[in-house]
Every structure is written in C-alpha cells, then in structure tokens.
Amino acid sequence: MKKTITTILVVALLLLAAPALFAQEAVTDIFGIEIGTVMGYNLGTENIGAAQSMAISFGLGEQFEAAMVFISGGGGNIPNMSLVRLSYYLLDEVGLRVSTGGSGPGATAAGFGVFSYPIRRDFNDTLTTALGLGVDYYVPNINNNLEDGIVAIGLNATVAF
Length: 161
Fold this sequence. Notes:
Helix content: under 10%
Order of helices and strands: HEEEEEEEE
Largest sheet: 8 strands, antiparallel, barrel
Number of helices: 1
Number of strands: 8
Low-confidence stretches: 18-23
Distance between the termini: 42 Å
Radius of gyration: 15 Å
Mean pLDDT: 86
Strand order of the largest sheet: 1-2-3-4-5-6-7-8
Oligomer: single chain
Strand content: over 45%
C-alpha cells in the first residue's frame, strides 16, 4: 500500500512537470503570509492526523517563490516541522514545490508536492489574496525509511504584496 501511494504521487508529479512552457505568475511579488490547515495520512503509523501551517513567502521572480514554512502538528501523526520551501508556478492552475528543513533535534525533514490557487484576487497590482490547495509528501526524518512519510492535503489563505 505504501509503495503504491508513493508511486502514484511520483507519476502525478512527472505528468504535471511535462508541460512547463505555460507558467503562471506567482502569488507573492515581494512578501506574503500564508495560514492554513493540513490533514495527512502517516504511512508509518497508518493513522490520520491534523496540523496547522504558517508560511512567510518571498517572491523570487515571476514564477518562483521561497517560503519559510512552520507546520504545528503536536508531534502525533504529523510532527512539528520547520521547512524552507521553493515553489515553481508551472501551469495556469498548478505548481510544484520542494521543501527541506527539520522536525526535531537531529532530524532532517524533506517534502515535495503540487499546489493550486484556484481562487485569486489582485487589487491594483499591489495586494493579492488567494485560496490555495496542495498535496504534499513529507518525510519527517530522511534517515528513516522514505516510504514512511506523510501524504498531506492542505488548504490555505494567502495575503501577499
């Protein structure tokens, strides 16, 4: 079961990465704040968990963003993680992101995923608000088995300049 879910995620990411010619504009031009919630299935414990997420993002170009992401899961099925995330806006509605960071003393965390901002509003090319959805695969400790990660679905609200 774990290998099937991992394989499906990898194939989905590869299929989405193929048409990279039609990139959309990033939500964040200079600075943005993202607040959200995450529901995830921990493949190691085979349980569902919930967490809150907060990110501070910085625009790196028209299609790139960097963010500092903090996931507060309470240490259960989704542990606390502090990550640096790079996002690339691939298509009109879809983008890819990779993350790296830590989840505790001596534990290096990593992740990758796809995201979309289906609801977005720009105000005078200055302020942007957006509602985002994402599917990520997090590995809280890459020194353990990589297939014992977390398949997470997130919903977030972003305000950016």
